[in-house]
Amino acid sequence: MITPDIQLLKKYNREVPRYTSYPCVPYWYDLEDHHQYFEKFTSGFEEANKIGGLSLYVHLPFCEKLCTYCGCNKIIITNHVVEEDYWQAVVGEWYHYRELMTETPVIRELHLGGGTPTFFSPENLRRLLNCIFDIADIHSRREFSIEGHPNNTTSAHLEILQQFGFQRISFGVQDHDPEVQKFINRIQPYENVKRVTEQAREIGFTSVNYDLIYGLPRQSEKSIEKTIHDTILLKPDRIAFYSYAHIPVKARGQRLYDENDLPAPEEKLKFYLTGRQMLLEAGYIDIGMDHFALPHDKLYQAFKTGRLHRNFMGYTDTQSNFLIGLGVSAISDTGIAYAQNGKELLTYYRNLNDGKFPVKKGYILDETDKDMRHYISEVVCKGETCFQAKHKDIFDKYILPELEELWRDGLIDMDDNGLQVTVIGRIFLRNICHAFDLKQRMSRDDSIRFSRSV
Ligand SMILES: C[S@@+](CC[C@H](N)C(=O)[O-])C[C@H]1O[C@@H](n2cnc3c(N)ncnc32)[C@H](O)[C@@H]1O
Ligand code: SF4
Prior knowledge:
The chain is α/β, with parallel strands linked by helices. The chain has 15 helices and 20 strands. The chain has helices at about 5-10, 35-50, 80-100, 120-135, 155-165, 180-185, 190-205, 220-235, 265-280, 300-305, 345-355, 365-380, 390-410, 430-435, 440, and strands at about 30, 55-60, 60-65, 75, 105-115, 135-150, 165-175, 205-215, 240-245, 285-290, 290-295, 310, 315, 325, 330-335, 335-340, 360-365, 385, 410-415, 420. A 9-stranded mixed β-sheet has the order 10-11-9-8-7-6-5-2-14, sandwiched between helices. A 4-stranded antiparallel β-sheet has the order 1-17-16-15, covered by helices on one side. A 3-stranded antiparallel β-sheet has the order 18-20-19. α4 (about 120-135) runs parallel beside α5. Bound molecules: S-adenosylmethionine (SAM) and iron/sulfur cluster.
């Protein structure tokens, strides 16, 4: 088992982004009254639609109960009457986008995320999907996926989704230990996870992912071992083994406990290393930041052949450079410009009623941003990247000093042409990406917070 030196851990356990985008969301600016984004949208749409088809992300924010650790954009509510207004608003937003499109959109990737998409009744999901597909074509090699909560995903949900062509499902599992579950307010019997996994497979889902988290309050090495052991018994095709992100200034539920309830950084790292080793021994392959896949899974095939990509929805094996995000807080990415919808539900409805896009923040990338994004994407997806001569000045001034330090610490191998992440370096991928993060380096805003890298 790889065991990085404790000094190394202390040195690199810093606040760094997870790099699901570059530049990272906190560096985006206000896009209200901003037409630049929509110009980029219109100019990029046709090409993207013809070449690879579009990706669509639909954010379904409602959850019945607050899991106290949760850092996602969610709205806690028990009254399901909210479903109707929400799915209709999402459809309104989609139709609004359709007016900007010069031809019928071809949907290649579709992901329903949350919050808890399975908060919605199967019937409401059916209505939503019918309306989305009503004005679109479906790509012959579609990839449709959903995030399901093991406690409220039913076979009726799974059957309807399967009829619409969904083949991938990701279950939020987090931890199987009853004591941890009690502490994080997420009681979720193992039988529920087992039941939904078996049902999904019977109904025809070909890829089941579990999200697990290490570093949660009340976890111990023993509990992590048991969680991983029990997980392996159910053989999910993919596993996201996330580092718990503790940012109580943003995720208020996390204020219900304090740092003393959390494992120390060296314990947390041990949890990761123990879990990782168990997964490797069970046949899973570490394909990148937090993610593991069994060899038959498409994600591993993509990793092996250098076709792995990463966007806001996580790792994917299809490269669509054009993502439209629908719903509160959803993010769109045209390849050269990002936009994020506002997070407030009533403002989202109001904007749509007024015939406006509910976009709040965004960012138009310049050439340097695109190049830095390329380096970061290669580090995260391939574990290596080649340096380009045209960036010599930027490298000398900003990037090389940080890379040289990473090299001295054994996290990367490097020569004049490029870098390769070492085995130890894979634990610190976020820190390696940081070397190319010119935006964060130039920022003078000290109020921007990220979770720590370990
Ligand atoms: C948007 S949530 C949706 C999952 C679904 N609502 C559920 O809970 O089953 C996606 C995943 O983010 C991860 N997540 C949420 N909060 C986190 C945190 N503070 N640190 C690390 N991962 C977190 C969890 O693993 C979760 O399954
Ligand atoms: S973890 Fe999932 S179910 Fe729990 S509050 Fe977050 S989004 Fe909702």
